[in-house]
Design a protein that fits this description.
Layout (H helix, E strand, L loop, with lengths): L2 H6 L2 H6 L2 E8 L5 H16 L3 E8 L6 H9 L1 H9 L5 E4 L2 H5 L5 H15 L5 E4 H11 L4 E6 L3 H13 L3 E7 L5 H4 L7 H6 L8 E5 L7 H11 L3 E3 H13 L10 H4 L5
Parallel strand pairs: 1-2, 1-3, 3-4, 5-6, 5-7, 7-8
Helix pairs in contact: 5-7, 8-13
Length: 266
Amino acid sequence: MNSQTLARGDIATAAALPARIGLIVPSSNTTIETELPELFRRQSDATGRAYTFHSARAGMRTVNQRELDAMVGRSAECAEALADADVDVIAYACLVAIMAQGPGEHRAAERVIAGAAARGGHPAAVTSSAGALVRALHAIGASRVAMVTPYLRPLTQVVREYLEAEGIEVLDAVSLEVDDNLAVGRLDPARLLGIASGLRRDGADAIVLSACVQMPSLPAVQQVEDALGLPVVTAATATTYEILKALGHQPAIAGAGRLLAGSSRP
């Protein structure tokens, strides 16, 4: 638990309590709240640690600049609401909303969220799916990637330019051209092996299989990594990695790629 919680009780008792994970999600989200709990269930099976999830929702139905801007504008309000639950970590779980604000924006967004939680009286560690993806790729030494996104091509270009501003070259990117966020959550992850196999991967250090926490990808992560022989990272696995780091927990998650396997630390 966070430092304030520890100050109120016995440290040994607090260490045995579930870690509370707060998520700021689009109102139309249907995926991150299923993929993250599944990943942390596997972590619990391996380590015995327990985790609970607590979400604040910000309005966003269509993936366009106006709605993305509005969602980002509500981040402080959502963080203040999550602070009421005394969460240990807050993850802003909409990658493109932050990236659409301009290069490097994850740093400012994370500061805003941390400040709002602190003002609510319950400081928490903060990450974002945008920042998590950047930092996870750097952690595994991936400076060149091939990428799959559900977005319309202009937004995929925004993601490409954002990553490249962070020193990560995007060698190839596939846009699935879906702008309805509910429809993104209905995309079939069974298609991802075929899609990823068609990417230009010569010289790539990793594959970003889903640059969106709403696009289902978890069932395909290990399959694509095994088939193509490259590390596979998604917005969801990167966010999970950062949450575990913030909690001081070593990843030990099976079947979700080497980033989270724990056998070889990035």
